[in-house]
């Protein structure tokens, strides 16, 4: 015999929430892998110019998400097994893991909210550096000009944009005419890369934020149910 009555109901509710948590870990892992290998982000963040790599803040965050998703799946399995076996030791370990994960998620959420614009700003700075070098070296350094042109083409073709959105007829002429690096379907006057970069990473940040909020709500229920079940097992006459 095991726990009875309401405690038994909580046991199966905890198992259900743990199963959802395990699935959520799989979703987080899948989304993180998708973000890592998404053509738009990976092709931009792997660019190099003049010995400088594109900002890696976003990729580092994605790698952390991959680790978090894997840990969530392990912890979810631990919670499911602990609930079915009615093991105080496993449930206590599960609760401790949840507290640590929840604290890390809150800290990451605060840090991410405070620096939510830094990723796009870093990439825009990298883009501007390449753009300015392509203009400054048009008549002097052909090797550097070709390297800058290749990087700008990657930006423009990936994001379907052209130029920085800054009204300057001279630089617009260079971008559109002399170097021939703009996609034919867009214009520097209508589709600037600054806006496209911000749009790209804002969409990713909101997606991660929604996933984190859902997981946090599930974790709160799980922590509550695991402690109630653990207390119920301890007070059960069978034990």
UniProtKB/TrEMBL annotation:
The gene is LOC110526509. One of its GO terms (molecular function) is lipid binding. The chain crosses the membrane at residues 12-35, 56-84, 90-113, 205-229. This is Tetraspanin. Pfam families: Tetraspanin (PF00335). It is found in: Basolateral cell membrane; Membrane. Keywords: Adaptive immunity, Cell membrane, Disulfide bond, Immunity, Lipid-binding, Membrane, Transmembrane, Transmembrane helix. GO terms for biological process: adaptive immune response. Disulfide bonds join 161-193, 162-182. Belongs to the tetraspanin (TM4SF) family. It comes from the Eukaryota. It is a multi-pass membrane protein.
């Amino acid at each position: 015999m095991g726990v009875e009555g309401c405690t038994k109901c909580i046991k199966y509710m905890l198992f259900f929430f743990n199963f959802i948590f395990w699935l959520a870990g799989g979703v987080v892992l899948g989304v993180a892998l998708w973000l890592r290998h998404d053509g738009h982000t990976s092709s931009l963040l792997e660019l190099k110019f003049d010995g400088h790599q594109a900002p890696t803040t976003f990729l580092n965050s994605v790698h952390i998400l991959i680790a978090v998703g894997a840990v969530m799946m392990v912890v979810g399995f631990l919670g499911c097994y602990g609930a079915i076996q009615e093991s105080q030791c496993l449930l206590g370990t599960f609760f401790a893991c949840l507290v640590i994960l929840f604290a890390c998620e809150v800290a990451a959420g605060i840090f991410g909210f405070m620096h939510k614009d830094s990723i796009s700003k870093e990439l825009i700075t990298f883009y501007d550096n390449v753009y300015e070098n392509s203009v400054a070296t048009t008549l002097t350094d052909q090797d550097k000009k070709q390297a800058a042109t290749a990087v700008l083409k990657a930006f423009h073709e990936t994001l379907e944009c052209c130029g920085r959105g800054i009204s300057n007829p001279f630089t617009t002429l260079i971008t559109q005419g002399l170097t021939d690096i703009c996609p034919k379907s867009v214009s520097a006057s209508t589709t600037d890369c600054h806006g496209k970069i911000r749009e790209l990473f804002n969409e990713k940040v909101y997606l991660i934020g929604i996933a984190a909020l859902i997981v946090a709500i599930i974790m709160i229920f799980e922590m509550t149910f695991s402690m109630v079940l653990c207390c119920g097992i301890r007070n059960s006459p069978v034990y």
